[in-house]
Amino acid sequence: MGRLENRVAVVTGGGRGIGRAIALELAREGAKVVVSARTRSQLDAVVEEINEIGSVGLAVEADALNRLESKKPVIEAVSHFGQIDILVNNVGGGVPGDQNPYTHDDDTFEANLALNLTSAYWTTREALPHMKENSFGRILTIGSGYAKRSGGALAYTSAKHGLIGFTKALAGQVAADGITVNCLCPGWTNTALVDWDAMGRARGTDAAEAHAWRSAENLQNRVLEPEELGPMAALLAAPESAGITGQVISVDGGYKV
């Protein structure tokens, strides 16, 4: 029996990459897992993997840039399983557009904030009353190496820094109800969101050189795999993590220490 037996988890952005890896790890620990994203084929593939593990998965198509759709995974979790115990706000990335600080497009800035910060609020807001009613909740936001330092695009970095403030403020306000809130920060990780070819071209080199450049930014001189985030996420979701809240925890190979 896993340590998340009889728990229900929601993982946003769960169709690929870090979200997929976390969803599968939670399933291995016994949780029923609702995964949400915009791409049905990716969701169906993850649910099939969850079912093969021996747990139960549910796919929910949702656009994180839409307030009502951001709440759908929680609504569906409660409708199908009667509860939500664990919420992983993993959805994020970049909305394309002019992000030069001197000419920045206003709509692009706001869309990036919505995707990487505001959507976490929308989904969390839907989950909190259910968690309070059951006197148990584990909320995990997925930050970034840029959540604690500069280096990324203006809106993305601002949003990821905002997630830390969101995490700490919320942790203080819900602690008495048995709910913990933590921020898990990856560094450079091998996911579809990282375009090594484009990164290399921007520096006048190639993908291999870009990969080596980013690898050198952490103490282990490597780019991590998404599966390396899973065990820490499972720990923070587990009952025995009750004493861990309001924390920013990195799984990044020692990124820019």
Notes on the structure:
By secondary structure, the chain is α/β, with parallel strands linked by helices. The protein has two domains: 207 residues, NAD(P)-binding Rossmann-like Domain (Rossmann fold); 30 residues, no CATH class. It contains eight helices and seven strands; from the N terminus they run βαβαβαβαβαβαααβ. Strands 3-2-1-4-5-6-7 form a seven-stranded parallel beta sheet, sandwiched between helices. The mean pLDDT is 95.
How much is the average pLDDT? 95
Q: Which residue ranges are poorly predicted, with pLDDT under 50 across at least 5 consecutive positions? A: none
Radius of gyration: 18 Å
For the largest beta-sheet, the strand count, sense and barrel status come to: 7 strands, parallel
From the N-terminal CA to the C-terminal CA, the straight-line distance is 38 Å
Oligomeric category:
single chain
Number of domains: 2
Summarize it:
The chain has 257 residues and is an alpha/beta fold. It is built from 8 helices and 7 strands; from the N terminus they run βαβαβαβαβαβαααβ.
